[in-house]
Amino acid sequence: MVVLLIFNVLGILAALFCAHRSYRRYGRPVRALAAGVGGLLVLPLIVVVAVAAAAPRASRTG
User: Fold this and answer.
1) What is the enclosing helix (H) or strand (E) of 59?
2) In this predicted model, what pLDDT tens digit does every residue of 19-30 receive, in sequence order?
3) What is the pTM of this model?
4) CB crowding 23-38: b at 16 or more within 10 Å, else e
5) Residue 44 buriedness (CB in 10 A; 0-12 / 13-18 / 19+)
6) Cβ-proximal residues to 12 (8 Å cutoff; 6+ apart), any chain
7) Distance between CA 61 and CA 40 in Å, rounded?
8) 43 vs 8: CA distance, rounded Å
9) How confident is the model at residue 60 (pLDDT cuts 50, 70, 90)?
10) Burial of 40: CB neighbours in 10 Å, binned 0-12, 13-18, 19+
11) Which end of the chain has the smaller Cβ count within 10 Å, N or C?
């Protein structure tokens, strides 16, 4: 449960960081919102790829 909480907090922080950086750079709220949504998607993607790469071959199906 704690791992999921930490994961969600890191995802929200990544979204806020991306949105804030985009707004400071371009000054457009819509673009900052899109960057924030993208920031929410980046962290889970990295974690899924890392877990898939680290899984032992015997546990993979197919």
Assistant:
1) none
2) 999 999 999 999
3) 0.68
4) beeeeeeeebeebbee
5) middle
6) 40
7) 28
8) 9
9) low
10) middle
11) C
